[in-house]
């Protein structure tokens, strides 16, 4: 039975239970109300939904403890409005407002009743009544906002403002915004559309600016002026009008020079930001320490690391017991690959903390870089004491930190040719994996394979091969049940390679190629959409199979077959993306595909698009540097591109 069939079966059972309850007690309004709700939201039989809700409102009596009695007319009104029956909606919302006096509804919730009444009047063409209702909603709660099945976070301020604009009453629209500021300083921000890049300079944007300036310029509002300057400056900053923001901050008080500095940083004018912090130090010498830290961070943003280190050291001269300053310097030295100095500062911070901490891991990594393996081992042993301990319980880690630490220690002993200790720590890692298998049976195969990998490292090939062969049999069973799962083929083929059975690995990869080609052909014969409810018909599934196909072609030494796949994936990415933060993954994937096609100019342009969205994206910065210097750029396994996005 499919998931959809199961859901429909449950829905049917719920409605049958409610109908049985009504047969037993048809005089309880709550049963009729719930039946109406089920028909509206689940069955989408709107006529019956209205009929049952009306019945509930007529009876208006329930013995149910947790009931919706006060919402009968309110819900009925919402359904009427949703179905375009505005006159019926008006009548029901009026009754809901009258009833709210009797049932002592939450005062702020009643503002929604008036807001809905206003929407009903507006839909019915009764604009004067709509304006009155919106104003009443705002009088009760200036932040009155509808967030339910019918309207997505629509607020009463926007409804009133939009209606005035619709009626050509521009002065009234601006006065509405000004009036809202008096009640709530940031209220106009509610009508700013989410993620609208074209909002800056729009009529609404200019009206909001006008409203804040009306208060700033009117001496009557002197008590609000500075607060409005700050809000308006924040608006300018949000939309990149940095010069206007800075002018407003200057008008408020010297305290706002920090906001000026932050604004300069957002505009990448690091020199002016630093000059502003230095000015604050002159005016407020008691704020020297905080400004030194701000200056150091600004120099870091500007990638002027020597100056950043100097200012962190100035902070240390004032407060030598703050471990964060030492850590910040250590991180810079690590970035600069000056591991000796990084070790020096990590050790100073650890001395202050005086207990095992996460920085022992970073210290170990630096020692490892310098091939000081004994020191690295000791640092890892300290880190092991707290690994995984401070991770919140709701984050599932599979004990990875402790496991990784055990394996790191073992590999370092291996470098020292200390076979006894190497095997001891690998055995501890095996014990840890076996503990995890007891807790998480779903990951058993993954853990068993890792155990077998460790047996190979300690020279116990017989035990390792026993596990690998057992896993191959398990994957055989899974593949027989799910012959279209490319991931199963991949994992089984990898296991064949681990037991040196190249012939079986090649056979498995070729089978998987046949499966991929069959699925891709099926996709291409359909109209594929991201909005399709059928998972087998989605664009991401199509991309996943294309990526798998390229991956398997590489495995069977047919890289020339991948070119067409890369080009298809680029086309799909380009057709389905917009340049924003949510889609940075797409852009980085496109760049990597261009590198695989040896189109480095296109890769460079794409990485620069990433930096336009996220100026701190270090991966894009590194790739740009490598491409521009002519260095060979490494790319991810092709399957990793779509898999990481869609897993």
Topology, pairings included?
Elements: H1 3-24, H2 29-43, H3 46-59, H4 72-82, H5 86-103, H6 107-123, H7 127-140, E1 145-146, E2 154-155, H8 156-166, H9 170-183, H10 203-217, H11 222-238, H12 242-252, H13 257-266, H14 270-283, H15 288-301, H16 305-318, H17 323-335, H18 339-353, H19 359-369, H20 373-384, H21 400-415, H22 419-439, H23 444-457, H24 461-481, H25 486-498, H26 502-524, H27 539-555, H28 563-575, H29 584-596, H30 600-613, H31 618-628, H32 638-646
Antiparallel strand pairs: 1-2
Helix pairs in contact: 1-2, 2-3, 3-4, 4-5, 4-6, 5-6, 6-7, 7-8, 8-9, 9-10, 10-11, 11-12, 12-13, 13-14, 14-15, 15-16, 16-17, 17-18, 18-19, 19-20, 20-21, 21-22, 22-23, 23-24, 24-25, 25-26, 26-27, 27-28, 27-32, 28-29, 29-30, 29-32, 30-31
Report the portion of residues in β strands: under 5%
| Silhouette | globular
Structural category: mainly alpha
Largest sheet, spatial ordering of strands = 1-2
Helical run tally: 32
The end-to-end span amounts to: 25 Å
Question: Low-confidence parts lasting 5 or more residues at pLDDT below 50?
Answer: 391-398, 532-537, 639-647
Major β-sheet annotation = 2 strands, antiparallel
Helix coverage percent: over 70%
Instruction: Say how many strands there are.
Output: 2
Q: What is the residue-averaged pLDDT?
A: 85
Rg from C-alpha positions? Answer: 33 Å
């Amino acid at each position: 039975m499919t998931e959809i069939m199961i859901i429909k079966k449950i829905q049917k059972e719920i409605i049958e239970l409610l109908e049985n309850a009504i047969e037993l007690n048809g005089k309880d309004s709550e049963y009729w109300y719930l039946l109406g709700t089920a028909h509206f939201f689940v069955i989408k039989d709107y006529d019956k939904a209205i009929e049952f809700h009306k019945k509930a409102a007529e009876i208006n009596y329930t013995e149910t403890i947790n009931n919706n009695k006060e919402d009968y007319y309110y819900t009925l009104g919402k359904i009427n409005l949703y179905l375009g029956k505005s006159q019926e909606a008006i009548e029901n919302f009026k009754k809901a407002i009258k009833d709210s006096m009797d049932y002592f509804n939450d005062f702020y919730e009643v503002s929604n009743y008036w807001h809905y009444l206003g929407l009903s009047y507006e839909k019915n063409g009764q604009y004067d009544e709509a304006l009155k209702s919106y104003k009443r909603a705002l009088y009760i709660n200036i932040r009155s906002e509808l967030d339910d099945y019918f309207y997505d976070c629509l607020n009463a301020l926007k409804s009133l403002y939009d209606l005035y604009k619709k009626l050509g009453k521009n002065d009234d629209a601006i006065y509405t915004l000004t009036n809202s500021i008096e009640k709530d300083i940031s209220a106009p921000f509610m009508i700013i559309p989410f993620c609208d890049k074209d909002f800056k300079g729009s009529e609404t944007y200019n009206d909001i600016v006008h409203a804040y300036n009306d208060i700033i310029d009117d001496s009557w509002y002197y008590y609000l002026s500075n607060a409005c300057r700050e809000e308006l400056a924040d608006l300018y900053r949000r939309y990149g009008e940095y010069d206007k923001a800075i002018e407003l901050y200057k008008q408020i008080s010297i305290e706002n020079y920090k906001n000026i500095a932050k604004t300069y940083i957002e505009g990448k004018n690091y020199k002016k930001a630093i000059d502003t912090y230095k000015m604050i130090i002159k005016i407020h010498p008691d704020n020297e320490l905080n400004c030194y830290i701000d200056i150091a961070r600004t120099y870091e943003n500007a990638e002027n690391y020597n100056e950043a280190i100097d200012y962190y050291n100035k902070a240390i001269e004032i407060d030598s017991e703050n471990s964060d300053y030492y850590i910040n310097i250590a991180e810079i030295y690590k970035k600069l690959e000056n591991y000796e100095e990084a070790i020096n500062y990590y050790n100073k911070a650890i001395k202050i903390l005086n207990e095992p901490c996460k920085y022992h891991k970073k210290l170990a990594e630096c020692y490892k870089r310098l091939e000081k393996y004994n020191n690295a081992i000791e640092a890892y042993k300290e880190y092991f004491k707290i690994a995984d301990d401070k991770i919140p319980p709701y984050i599932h880690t599979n004990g990875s930190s402790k496991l990784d630490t055990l394996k790191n220690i073992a590999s370092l002993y291996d470098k020292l040719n200390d076979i006894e200790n190497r095997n001891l720590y690998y055995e501890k890692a095996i014990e840890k994996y076996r503990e995890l298998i007891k807790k998480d049976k779903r990951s058993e195969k993954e853990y068993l394979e890792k155990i077998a990998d460790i047996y190979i490292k300690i020279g116990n090939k017989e035990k390792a091969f026993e596990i690998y062969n057992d896993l191959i049999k398990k994957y055989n069973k899974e593949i027989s049940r799910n012959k279209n799962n490319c991931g199963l083929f991949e994992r089984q083929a990898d296991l064949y390679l681990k037991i040196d059975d190249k012939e079986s690995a090649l056979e498995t990869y070729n089978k998987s190629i046949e499966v991929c080609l069959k699925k891709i052909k099926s996709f291409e014969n359909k109209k594929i959409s991201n909005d399709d409810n059928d998972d087998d018909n989605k664009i991401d599934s199509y991309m996943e199979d294309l990526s798998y196909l390229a991956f398997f072609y590489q495995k069977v030494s047919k890289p020339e077959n991948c070119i067409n796949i890369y080009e298809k994936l680029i086309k799909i990415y380009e057709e389905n993306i917009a340049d924003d933060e949510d889609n940075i993954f797409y852009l980085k994937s496109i760049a990597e595909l261009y590198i695989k096609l040896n189109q480095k100019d296109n890769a460079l342009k794409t990485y620069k698009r990433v930096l336009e969205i996220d100026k701190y994206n270090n991966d894009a910065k590194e790739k740009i540097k490598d491409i521009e210097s002519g260095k060979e750029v490494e790319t991810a396994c092709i399957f990793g591109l779509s898999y990481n996005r869609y897993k």
